[in-house]
């Protein structure tokens, strides 16, 4: 985009703003779907809501045929509000009340038990619904991270999610559930967030889930859910050689096709992409307000904040583009891009080397679709608008927040 195009958008929608490229989203969906479905036709995408639950985006995912993967009652209700068929909602996560379990099971949603406390809710539900065959899945805590090369995110040695196989809890849960006459265990779920997101990890998850399914579930198995966490297409500036969707799909489907070669009614494979579906679909567009020199260092102040683009405060600079107002060249310098908050750590980019931006220029940050908008705290300034572009048309999908929404009078007592 050139300066005049951005200025036109700024005049319509304010600055800063996020820009969602709907076509990139569709392409991501198609690439993931094609890679897996061509190798294993019984394939389902469960889009991970928490990664970015912008309603417009979730609705587009629904239109594309994706299930909604939710990890709280709030997200569950959002999926219903978006119009997702309840049978196409996958309810995961560590926190579920008895009412949540009841609603999900009444609705025929897929429910994956994360902890033993949920067993009681399931049992009570089955007693109250004696004439209904109740179906549940189990999230498994696999031991794959004992392999020293694979690290759980944030450097933890073990994951806290799911029911542990190695200490016998998994078998305990299975036995407990098998005592309920009107209940079938139909699925196993094995999401693990690793830093490396390696193909071999997904192969191993699939193998372990298949083995558990053979040993404990047998004919009632309807799905193997390997969770999310795969790499999407990364910006070149990250210098990471990420596996392709085909690489992941090949590793996972080869296991499934082998394990279930004899079986006519093969289980569904569920993948729950978050980051790989949405990270590269958003750009953040902000304006330079000041270029300041402190001692010998340059600080380019913009009207956005690190909270807009890197709320997890990871250290990597995002791909960045300066769109200049004037054509004249400016001195080449090393500079930091800093935000409007009063936090010293509010750096949107560290030590950028290039032509020094000027007041009135725009700075674009790419690859900001995952764990950004949902994580943006209501801190100091209202949250920006979100604009979508589809077939060349630009339209608002979230208006810029106002004071009344920031300090909502239905919530706050003045
Ligand atoms: C967060 C999460 C995902 C999505 O993970 P990404 O790394 O964003 O792909 C999928 N499934 C579950 C259960 C999750 O908690």
TrEMBL record:
<dbReference type="InterPro" id="IPR009006">
    <property type="entry name" value="Ala_racemase/Decarboxylase_C"/>
</dbReference>
<dbReference type="InterPro" id="IPR029066">
    <property type="entry name" value="PLP-binding_barrel"/>
</dbReference>
<dbReference type="InterPro" id="IPR000183">
    <property type="entry name" value="Orn/DAP/Arg_de-COase"/>
</dbReference>
<keyword id="KW-0663">Pyridoxal phosphate</keyword>
<dbReference type="Pfam" id="PF02784">
    <property type="entry name" value="Orn_Arg_deC_N"/>
</dbReference>
<feature type="domain" description="Orn/DAP/Arg decarboxylase 2 N-terminal">
    <location>
        <begin position="35"/>
        <end position="279"/>
    </location>
</feature>
<dbReference type="InterPro" id="IPR022644">
    <property type="entry name" value="De-COase2_N"/>
</dbReference>
<protein>
    <submittedName>
        <fullName>Diaminopimelate decarboxylase</fullName>
    </submittedName>
</protein>
């Amino acid at each position: 985009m050139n300066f005049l195009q951005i200025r036109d958008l700024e005049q319509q929608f304010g600055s800063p703003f996020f820009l969602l490229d709907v076509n990139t989203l569709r392409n991501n969906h198609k690439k993931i779907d094609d890679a897996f479905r061509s190798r294993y036709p019984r394939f389902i995408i469960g889009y991970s809501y928490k990664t970015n639950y912008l309603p417009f985006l979730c609705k587009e995912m629904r239109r594309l045929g994706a299930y909604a993967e939710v990890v709280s009652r709030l997200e569950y209700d959002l999926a219903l509000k978006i119009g997702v068929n309840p049978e196409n909602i996958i309810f995961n996560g560590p926190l579920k009340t008895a009412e949540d379990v009841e609603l999900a099971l009444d609705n025929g949603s897929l429910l994956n038990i994360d902890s033993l406390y949920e067993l009681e809710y399931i049992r009570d539900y089955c007693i109250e619904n004696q004439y209904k065959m109740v179906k549940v899945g189990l999230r498994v805590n696999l031991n794959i991270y004992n392999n020293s090369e694979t690290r759980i995110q944030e450097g933890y040695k073990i994951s806290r999610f799911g029911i542990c196989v190695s200490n016998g809890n998994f078998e305990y849960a299975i036995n407990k559930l098998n005592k309920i006459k009107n209940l079938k265990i139909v699925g196993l779920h094995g999401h693990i967030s690793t830093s490396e997101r390696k193909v071999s990890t997904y192969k191993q998850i699939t193998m372990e889930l298949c083995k558990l399914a053979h040993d404990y579930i047998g004919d009632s198995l309807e799905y193997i859910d390997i969770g999310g966490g795969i790499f999407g297409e990364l910006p070149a500036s990250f210098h990471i050689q990420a596996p392709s969707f085909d690489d992941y799909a090949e590793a996972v489907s080869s296991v499934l096709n082998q394990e279930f070669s004899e079986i006519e009614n093969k289980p569904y494979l569920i993948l729950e992409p978050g980051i790989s579906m949405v990270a590269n679909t958003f750009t953040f567009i902000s304006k330079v307000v000041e270029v300041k020199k402190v001692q010998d260092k340059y600080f380019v102040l913009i009207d956005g904040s690190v909270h807009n683009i890197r709320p997890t405060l990871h250290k990597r600079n995002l791909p960045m583009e300066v769109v200049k107002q004037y054509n004249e060249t400016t001195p080449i310098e090393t500079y930091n891009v800093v935000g409007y908050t009063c936090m010293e750590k509010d750096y949107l980019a560290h030590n950028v080397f290039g032509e020094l931006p000027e007041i009135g220029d725009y700075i674009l940050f790419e690859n900001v679709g995952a764990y950004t908008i949902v994580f943006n705290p209501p801190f100091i300034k209202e949250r920006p608008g979100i604009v979508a572009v589809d077939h060349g048309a630009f339209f608002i999908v979230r208006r810029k927040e106002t004071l009344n929404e920031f300090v909502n009078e239905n919530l706050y007592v003045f």
